[in-house]
Design goal:
Blueprint: H1 18-30, H2 35-46, H3 54-80
Length: 91
């Protein structure tokens, strides 16, 4: 489906100073990265010593499963309302 993100991802929103936002855009562009890829790289590095527990992984797996179910039900809902559902080419 168009504009549908991977089920194992989530949105985190926050406010930052405009000066920092400008520096982030420039730094990402200079490295040939999207802003998302640039920030993901920085946050991955900053949290590299933060350990996740088995309970964390269980919660992540459940949230991913829930997201997949929501995406699937949205696709079924759109198709039943006459919306177009694109089929992927098979080789």
């Amino acid at each position: 489906m168009p504009n549908q993100h991977a089920a194992d991802k989530e949105v985190i929103g926050f406010y930052i100073p405009r000066t920092l936002a400008r520096r982030i855009r420039k730094a990402a562009k200079s490295r040939g990265l999207t802003i998302t890829a640039f920030i993901e790289e920085i946050l991955t590095h900053a949290t590299r010593n933060t350990e996740l527990t088995p309970d964390d992984y269980i919660a992540i797996a459940q949230a991913t499963k829930d997201a997949v179910q929501r995406q699937t039900s949205k696709g079924i809902s759109r198709a039943s309302k006459g919306g177009s559902v694109k089929k992927q080419a098979t080789s």
